[in-house]
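ligand=fe (ii) ion
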Amino acid sequence: MNLEQKLDKYWKYLENKHTPPKYVGKVHELQFSVLKKAVDKQDEKFLKKLIRKMYIDKEAFILKNCATKGLKKVMIDLANRFKKNKKSNFYKMYDGVPNFHRAINKVLTKKYSLYAIKHSFYFYNWNAKSKLEKNLKNGAYWHWRYVKFLAGNEKKKYENNIPSDGQIDRLQIVRYPSGGGQLRDHVDSRKNQRVVSGIVMSKRGIDYEEGGFYFNKSKDKRINLESRIDEGDAVIFYGSLVHGVEAIDPDKKLSWKSNKGRWFLGMFVNDSDHVKNRITSEDLTGSIKRKFNKH
Ligand SMILES: [Fe+2]
């Protein structure tokens, strides 16, 4: 049995024995280079300890320095190119789905499984043809492959899948705009990816003033982590922990044209629309009426 299979087995053992964590415990800082080295050196003991901390002790990690050089510029250049050349749009995840972008406002968010005010730019690997798209892909996978490994998958699992395979990787450049960009309390599906990750590409106090990533500590207590997060850091955790993004500069005026706000690079393995009863993330606020979900 190779190491990722052993880790998968360990996750399954813990998942069968204990209920999934809901409210976060301690939040630690860990250099991405330390995780990378542990995976490269096949350090089973270290990786199992990390898994145990995430699942049993409900701990989360601010993974420092996950972004490749120049990644933020690639993201903003790509976002600007899409805004200039393509209308805000939506496509289901069937074979041949193009890359696209959508400004999701208070009305449109009702069509989704989560309540979010954000401008999202979606990228699939089979469309990575331009230099910018290839750079985005390379930048994201430099980090993502190691998170997949920690989650008990092969480093390149799902990477070359297409929608009819069932599960597909999707990169999402997100701008939570100043003027109320947000993502309400939710949990993420653990079916394809136990460990959630995404790279924060802005710094509070420089790019925006208020709001940011939080976990719930209890039913009505939140812990906002943004002051500990620098540009290029990711937050990694087991997807059943309740989390979200508090409104970014809620008192400012929202503009979809500007680039002001909090930028984020999300990476997630989705069930495609070829999958019947596909499992998505789950809103916990009652903001979304599930029976009206279209997307
Ligand atoms: Fe999430």
